[in-house]
Amino acid sequence: MPRIAGIDIPEKKRVDISLTYIYGIGRTNVYDVLKRAVIEPAKRVHDLTTEEVARLQKVVESLKVEGDLRKAVALNITRLKETGTYRGMRHSRGLPVRGQRTRTNARTKRGKRMTIGALKKEVLAKVDAAKKEKE
């Protein structure tokens, strides 16, 4: 298994697909990487020569990928939080940042549904009993 940018890429897959396992290289820019490394996208990883793998590593090293990219994204988010921007506030509250609606949907960001308004008598009795036990 060739190791590029600290990631073992799958041998059985095509080069253009297996490079997307690296954080920061997606389906859109993988063809630019392969063009700079002079490698055919349809070639399988296990068919690559050591020279081609070395060229690929050299091209990927020139890009900001994996740990460096994750660190840059985290620093950008903390900067937004510290400056108190709207986007920073949304990040800190765990809400969608890019203008999506939250009245419905947004369940992955907001978590499990919780009923706030009307409670049934049995549930209300359990909640009151739990509060009395704490006191």
From TrEMBL:
Which Pfam families does the entry link to? Ribosomal_S13
Q: Does the keyword tRNA-binding apply?
A: yes
Give the CC-aspect GO terms: cytosol; small ribosomal subunit
GO annotation (BP), single: translation
GO MF: rRNA binding; structural constituent of ribosome; tRNA binding
The entry's keywords: Ribonucleoprotein, Ribosomal protein, RNA-binding, rRNA-binding, tRNA-binding
**Could you tell me which InterPro entries the record lists for this protein?**
Rbsml_uS13_C (IPR027437), Ribosomal_uS13 (IPR001892), Ribosomal_uS13-like_H2TH (IPR010979), Ribosomal_uS13_bac-type (IPR019980), Ribosomal_uS13_CS (IPR018269)
Record carries keyword Ribosomal protein: yes
Give the quaternary structure: Part of the 30S ribosomal subunit. Forms a loose heterodimer with protein S19. Forms two bridges to the 50S subunit in the 70S ribosome.
The text of the family note is: Belongs to the universal ribosomal protein uS13 family.
Listed HAMAP family: Ribosomal_uS13
What job does this protein perform? Located at the top of the head of the 30S subunit, it contacts several helices of the 16S rRNA. In the 70S ribosome it contacts the 23S rRNA (bridge B1a) and protein L5 of the 50S subunit (bridge B1b), connecting the 2 subunits; these bridges are implicated in subunit movement. Contacts the tRNAs in the A and P-sites.
User: By what name is this protein known?
Assistant: Small ribosomal subunit protein uS13
